[in-house]
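Protocol step 4 of 5: obtain the predicted structure for the target chain.
Materials: sequence only (see below). No template structures provided, no constraints applied. The aim of this step is simply to have a reference model before the mutagenesis design in step 5. Sequence pasted as it appears in the construct record:
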Amino acid sequence: PPSSLSPYRLATAAPPRAPGKADAPPGWTVIGAGIGGTSAAYFLRQTFGKDVQIDVFEKGTVGGRLATINVEGKDYEAGGSIIHPLNLHMKHFVKELGM
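Step 4 output (C-alpha cells):
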C-alpha cells in the first residue's frame, strides 16, 4: 500500500541534498497555506530548526477554508469544514500549540 503523505511524515523524512552541499541547511517548498500546508511548515521548522529555508506559496489566503468573521465585536467560525474531535492528528496539533 502507498505510504501516507501527512505533514508530519513529510517533515520528518530525510530532505534531498545537492552534491557538495552537506553543510547547507535543507530548503523546502510548501504548496498551499491551508491547514495542511501550514502544518507542514510548522513541523519542518520544529524538525530542522531556525536555519531551514521554508518557502510557502498560496494563491488565496493563509488558513485556506479555515476562517473567522467578526460580527458586532464577536468572532465566529466561518470556515468550510469542521475538525472532528476524534481526529488524533488534530488533537496532537492542538496540544502541541497549547490551544
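Step 4 remarks: Residues 35-48 form the longest helix (14 residues). The CA atoms of residues 25 and 52 lie 5 Å apart.
Proceed to step 5.
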